[in-house]
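hi! just following up on the protien thing from before. the input was this:
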Amino acid sequence: MQKGILFLVPVPLAENATQKSFTPYLIDTINSIKTYIVENEKTARKFLKEAGIKTPQSELLIHDFGKHKRGNSLVPYFTQLMSGIDVGLMSEAGCPGVADPGAEIVSEAHKRGIKVVPLVGPNSMLQALMASGFSGQSFTFHGYLPIDKVDRAKRIKELETLSEKNKQTQLFMETPFRNNHLLEDVLKNCHGSTQLCIACNINGENEFIKTMTVGAWRGEKIDLHKKPTVFLIYKG
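and the predicted 3d structure came back as:
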């Protein structure tokens, strides 16, 4: 029996950013799919509605892959795919599988010989990199840095050293309510000449992306509390 296709469906990064986030092909695709694996059902249903899905939502089959479901058997998520039915995978925001638990579903799909098709859509790391002015030839995304202040300070210094040694852009992030603490530690532990880009609320109505030296940032007042933010440093 022919297996279904797993489509990776990106979700907008910010409120009222739907029109910036989807393509005609994405709209056609979601209107051909009735089964989804999602990280957040409420977010997923909202996006599908905004994107123009014509299928009544009552007819959709939504598999919950939220944090309370992970660690269980993956078999139920693949029932439709193994029966020849196409399925969409959606994260809470951005691209599935990138800094996202959906990677586990994608990995299992490859093991089962299921075709995986990534759709074009927003990705905060790449868009931040594009807008930073830093090296796009060599870069690394580190996800979340340690919460402990001592460990975090050590890690920030390590990333700065890596950037200088490899001429490599270093990207990282934090839970939005701890952004100001992370910024404080970056400004405290990096050299004044190191370049820092702060990319906040990407695609949002109040999007803010700015690159300056750490020394210049020390003279700025900026509030990143509860605002999705990507931090990038580069020491050439």
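The CA atoms of residues 2 and 46 lie 31 Å apart.
The longest helix spans residues 149-166.
cheers
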